[in-house]
Every structure is written in structure tokens, then in C-alpha cells.
Amino acid sequence: MSKIYELPALPYGYDSLKPFLSLEQLSLHHQKHHAAYVNNANALIERIETARQAGSAFDVKAAAKELSFNVSGHKLHSIFWNSLAPARGGANEPQGKIGEEIARQFAVFDEFKKEFTAAAVSCEGSGWAVLSKCPETGKLHILQIEKHNVNLVANFNILLALDVWEHAYYLDYKNDRAKYVQNFWSFVDWSRAELTLAQ
Ligand SMILES: [Fe+2]
After folding, report:
1. Looking at residue 59, which CATH number applies to its domain?
2. How many Å lie between the centroid of ligand 1 and the Cα of residue 10?
3. Ligand 1: centre distance to CA 30 (Å)
4. C-alpha to C-alpha distance for 117 and 138, rounded to whole angstroms
5. Are residues 181 and 107 in the same domain?
6. Both 74 and 144 in a single domain?
7. Which of 158, 102, 151, 156 is CA-nearest to residue 130?
8. What is the pTM of this model?
9. Percentage of the chain surpassing pLDDT 70?
10. pLDDT value at residue 88
């Protein structure tokens, strides 16, 4: 059977996000953790298809749960890599339409930054902070996703994602998630958020 999902290449080198993320931290995260979600999703889909063709029973409940976890893990990581870029220096605040929209809906950029940071730091266990947009209302919402797939809202477009699983930062920051989140802001690439905002 053909593979369904593929591990995307990073849009920068493994040593390009220092000092936010070391080469070792970034390469391990991408090549081992993200790759595992891709491989697990593909293997699961293959098992489901094989079982269907053979007329064999399989645990539908467990398969649905595993599919949601692994495919969401793959998709969120893909968004995360494209939410980052080598630091350009300066305040790195969003410009253009995304800058205007954040300022309009959150009053000021610092308020957005404060809310997003709180969502990231307070996530219990493994999860994500994301900035999303409801395509129906145009409103921007910060979501705190647990694991990869809990507290997502169907059909919301994700503009910006920050992985706060320990595997994302533990080599570089140990248990200091707050420092990792603080350093994230200098390495945000707002261009992906700008493109997604228009969708
Ligand atoms: Fe991750």
C-alpha cells in the first residue's frame, strides 16, 4: 500500500534556530518525534485497510482515537515548523494584515502575546498553544490543545502553533517551559499567519 503522509523537510537548517533551539533539539524533534506520528498514522491506515479487505474485525474505537492523535500530531508539527524562522532581531511584531487584525481583536499586540503565553505555559502535560481563526465569524481565538487533538475546534484555521510537549524543549530548557515560550517570540515567522488569515 502507498504511504499516505510524509515527513516534510524543514524550511531552514537544523542549526538555524539557535539559540532558541539547538541543532540536537530541533533535529531530534523533527526526525524522531514528528516522524513517529507520520509513521504511526501510515501504519494505522494500512492496518485498517488491510483488515477491511480481509473482512477482519478491528477495534474501531481504538483506531479512531489513534488516527486522530497521530494525524493531528503530524499536521500540528507541520504548522509549527512553518511558524518559525531564524531570528531577524528587533521586536519581531507582526506587520501587515495579521498585525492589524491582532491589534484590532486583542487591543494591542502585547495583550495577544500575554494571552498566548498563558495558554502555552499553563497547558497541563503535553499540548499546544495555537492562534486560530473561525472562518464563519472571522474572529481570532487562542486555543490550548491537550495532547494533539483535545480542545480543537473543527474547521478553525490555525495561523500560528507552538508545541509545548516536553520533547519540544527539554534538551535545551529542561523543565523551564516559560523560558522556552519567552524565547519563541523572537523566532516567530508571521508570514504563514498572514497567508492563513486570508483563507
Ligand atoms: Fe512536538
Report:
1. 1.10.287.990
2. 14
3. 8
4. 22
5. yes
6. no
7. 158
8. 0.96
9. 99
10. 84
